[in-house]
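For the sake of clarity, the format in which proteins appear in this thesis is described at this point. Each number in the token line that follows is a code from a learned vocabulary of backbone shapes. One such record is shown here in full, so that the layout can be seen directly:
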Amino acid sequence: MKSLALAVLTLTLAAALPASAGSITTTTWNFATAPNQGLGTSTYAYTSNGITITASSNTNLFYKVSGGDETGLGLDNCPHHSCDHEIEPGEAITFDLSSLFSKNVTGISLMLGSIQPGETGSVCDAFSVCMTFTSSNDFTSTSILSLYADMKAHNSGSLIITSGSGDVLVNQLQVTTSTVPEPSSLLLMGSGLLGMVGMIRRKLGR
């Protein structure tokens, strides 16, 4: 009876360990934090929950906030393009997501804006593996986990966002990570289970 009580106590202690030993964390980067403002630089670092990712382009970056889905990170592309401050065909914004490789990423989604009917956005890694965003994905969080898996497999953090037709904006990137339970908690849980199994076997053997 004492052995059973000890096993139950061990399981109780394991269940009471900090939630961080196997917790899930959602990190969000929003790319429209100031209304219609150029950043004055072609490279900018964004930090959320202690994780930093970097956006870069051949053109200075631009925050566009015009209401509705016309919101997100674009380019200060005047006077060479339409001055719409969005990513047009032939232009791109590249995100460096290599800082995520040390995390246990269980989900990653991207939101693009300003994709009108008949327009498309293209999201690729550095090895020409791509996903196409259509108007049905406009201003909608869309999983890119399979694309991220290919990036990690090639140890290349480059996520390249461009327009297939029309123009697009980058609104948000969201990542879900989970921590692996600490070995001490797994050992404690295992000890409790083994204790209970031993007690049950002894009882059945009587």
Residues 1-21+181-206 form one domain. Helices lie at 2-15, 145-153, 183-204. Confidence is low (pLDDT under 50) at residues 4-21, 184-188. The chain has two domains: 1-21+181-206, 24-178.
